[in-house]
Amino acid sequence: MDRIYLCLAHMSGKEQDFIKEAFDTNWVVPMGPNVNAFEKDLEHFVNEVESEESITKDQSLKTNSQLAPLKLKQVSILNSQLDKKVVCLSAGTAAVHLALLACGVEAGDEVLVQSFTFCASSHPITYLGATPVFVDSERESWNMDPDLLEEAIKDRIAKTGKTPKAIIPVALYGMPYQIDRIMEIADRYGIPVIEDAAEGLGSRFKGQVLGTFGKYGVLSFNGNKMITTSGGGALICDNEKDKNEILFYATQARESYPYYQHEHIGYNYRMSNICAGIGRGQMTVIDEHIVHHKHVQELYCELLKDVKGIKMHCNPGPDYDSNFWLCTCTLDPELKVKGQENAYKEVITGAVGGAAGVTHAASTAVTDCQPNTNVEAMRVALDAANIEARPLWKPMHKQPVYKNAPAYTNGVSESLFAVGLCLPAGPYVTDDHVRYIVNAIKSAII
Ligand SMILES: *Cc1c(COP(=O)(O)O)cnc(C)c1O
Question: What's the CA-to-centroid distance between 54 and ligand 1, angstroms?
């Protein structure tokens, strides 16, 4: 069996046509027809709301021979009710950075951010000299706990005399956050919401696409996300005016003079026309990708439902419609896994998951906050069976780099981190792969 990865990029075949067009028309720059067209495609995608009254009809998606067989489901006819605008950028991280800038975040300010996330949600806060204030999760969605959010707002105002400048909930692994409650609280205190939907492209809450509820919505097209442009991201904005302001800062903040005149600090964050060509090709398969991720999730649930001690993380209610970018499960602490007595005995070399780039060598085999030994043993067992699995993201308030940041915690993200594991998902994961993975999980259990 070839190695099964967490989430591999899958091309439609159309990407190269759009790239060729960019070369043929000499648009090999960070702007151009592909960027504009990709933005239009994304606007069309995010503005469609699933209407409750809409009739369901068979979805006639073409099956690509490279793809695993799709079990097609019924989807609703979509009604366009929103008019959001989208700016394409060089990365999702750049989108977070510019959204914070546009919310007026400055040195000395505070920003409330979900602790249970990937570092790209919070690092840009520090780029601006501001302080992240971490908010823990609730158990249902694993995302920002609205009660704790309000407690944090009140306490920050009491302690600092200032209102936090923005709130960043995160659609972890694609799962929607309790956006209705979060928006209600944010509006009550007049704080803008920046939705980090980098992992949740196409996930919906009450039929509406994530990233379209708040003032800004972050998307990522990194190599392992729901769709890819090799690297890239986008910011969903309320209107043309906000979009233009983001564009101004994404292109070095230049004033209209015959020479370079600068009155603000800008960034070189615009997406290239080549990357946008890939994005346009990807938009032709985005619906198939989402259907496939959901199908893989369903199959895991079906095959693991009778396995004691393993629980899949599922939509907590009818309002939630996760894209299941990654499928995740939790292991009962009592579950005995082969080899768990040897977990964490050796210092790991290289990044788990083989992420691109350079990692510093680990200085210790253990830290004060890590997954349980049965989880690590399961990861090692799956790895030996050529299956990539990864622990859940370690909460930011437990990261050494953020040890001085204020945090409002309830133990939820830390306890999930101790027991959780991400399993392979995405277009290349076939039904046979899922059966193989589930069998590998069962064989690792004592
Ligand atoms: C991937 C990701 C980002 C950033 O996206 P990049 O395109 O990789 O910069 C932001 N937030 C979360 C939660 C992510 O997973």
Answer: 33
